[in-house]
Amino acid sequence: MAESPELSALLAEQRRAITAIGGLDDRAPMALRERVETLRERSAPKQRRARRFGLAGALTTAAAAVAVALAVIVGSGASGPTLSQASAFTLQPATGPAPGHSFDGTLDLNVDGVPYPYWKDDFGWKATGSRVDKIHGRTATTVFYRKGKLRIGYTIVTGKPVSVPGSAAVAVNKGITFHSAPVHGATVVTWERRGHSCILSGFNVTRKQLLKLATWKDEGALPYSDSGS
Question: Any bridge partners for residue 134, and if so which?
Fold first, then answer.
């Protein structure tokens, strides 16, 4: 190994990949970790018996296995996105136009039957743009609103609710449970509508302002539960 720069480089690459896996927040599923460990044990005797070029092949295979495991861990989304990850989209620039408004208190855009609110007449917040992102195999659709110099983003995430930090403040208003926390330097509020995580956040806006918008139902026109209420 010491005499071969190529083998030393391969070994260093393998160690970096293993270190990267160890530093991830989301642990691999137990079945995957057991499978990787089994493969590692099986390859150990072969590596000890291999000559220089045989060892190079074994190291290359091991490094490839680690790379595949890392891709599975990062991309599997087994634990789903966190509030910090999902709320980041509310602070990004718009990539699409704002949805229109036809009637009642909703915009002409919904995610699995969960519509976005129309706030211009009642609160002065005008929809100005939108964007669609993918995270952990989920779709995160965001509509942006402006009021004067202030800007907020309203993201709806498909799938199970996002994970919320234990330090988040909890409030119950009009039968709805809200979690709020400062994230990315912005004020963030999240709650559920029809099983979907809704996330509202912005800079220089207060938790009270966001909660007022989040709890508004336009006398029932903005559905929150499967029954439409």
Answer: 139
Q: What tokens were used for 118?
A: 């129309």
Q: What distance in Å separates the CA atoms of residue 19 and residue 36, rounded to the nearest whole number?
A: 15
| Rounded-to-10 torsion of CA 168, 181, 83, 112 | 100
Which residue(s) pair with 172 in the sheet? 177
Q: For 3-33, what is each residue's pLDDT tens digit? A: 555 555 555 656 655 555 555 544 455 555 5
Task: Report whether pLDDT(153) > 50.
Answer: yes
Read off the DSSP letter of residue 191: E
CATH annotation of 83-214: 3.40.1000
Given a contact cutoff of 8 angstroms between Cβ atoms, the answer to whether 124 and 149 are in contact is no
CA dist., res. 129 & res. 47, Å (int):
57
* Domain ranges across the chain: 5-76, 83-214
In angstroms, how far is the first alpha carbon of the chain from the final one?
68
Tell me which amino acid residue 133 is.
D
On whether the CB atoms of residues 193 and 114 are closer than 8 A, the answer is yes
Could you tell me how far CA 153 lies from the centroid of its own chain?
15
pLDDT in tens, 74-104: 333 446 899 999 999 999 999 999 999 988 8
